[in-house]
Amino acid sequence: MTNFETIQLEQDKRGISTITLNRVEKHNALNSLMIKELTIAAEQLGIDTSVRAVVLAANGKSFCAGGDLKWMQSQMEKDRDGKMQESRALATMLGALNSLPKFLIAKVQGSAYGGGVGMMAVADVVIANNKSKFALTETKLGLIPATIGPFVVARMGENFARQVFYSGKAFTADFAMRSGLVTTAVDEADLEKAVEEEIQAILKCAPGAIASAKTLCQQLGGSAPSEMAEYTANQLADRWESKEAMAGIDAFFNKQPAPWLNE
Known about the structure:
By secondary structure, the protein is an alpha/beta fold. The protein has helices at residues 32-47, 69-76, 80-98, 115-121, 149-164, 173-179, 191-202, 207-220, 229-240, 243-253, and strands at 7-11, 16-21, 53-58, 103-108, 112-113, 125-129, 133-135, 171-172, 184-186.
């Protein structure tokens, strides 16, 4: 298997592969390299006939803190084509995980924000620590959850998404369960057991049937979120070019309040 820098990829003798986010010092925040490596891992696992199911996990205290702010800041310095390229890369990664022809379990041991919520939304089942917190905080920086948006809304539904999509408010595992984002919330000590129960169930099913059933389910659900990739890439690039985003991210790095907080 490929050697990675920001993730770990392992497989047990049963064919259960685990992708582990491994930027612990950055709370597993997404940057260009992690996005690329997650895409490669998803593509490799998708064509590997020995893989029966995939667990998406994380090292450290956080599942994923969203987009790395230095990565976001670097987008401000790129031209439109550069911004679009990065936006498309994120959409491609989420699309690759979403269409993975294997059962995908997200094991969320800590809090998840922004892109972390997006990765939860593309999993078939999400097992989370019942103490975890979740949030879409992009609007606090003058940005929007554009690229992850189609996946999150498809998972939570518009009603629940409206309650958290643009307010930036954190929400609990209980709310996440009611919205459909989280399947099961358990004590941290019980995470492994809950994930194993899902694995045991899926190992009793035919791999080819699982892949076909997953495709069928997504087709019956309507338009695939990945079909919105170009639209959302443009929306995110627009926000990266906005005065609000420039001011919001600059204020964050200078440890000052965003302009709209002083109005």
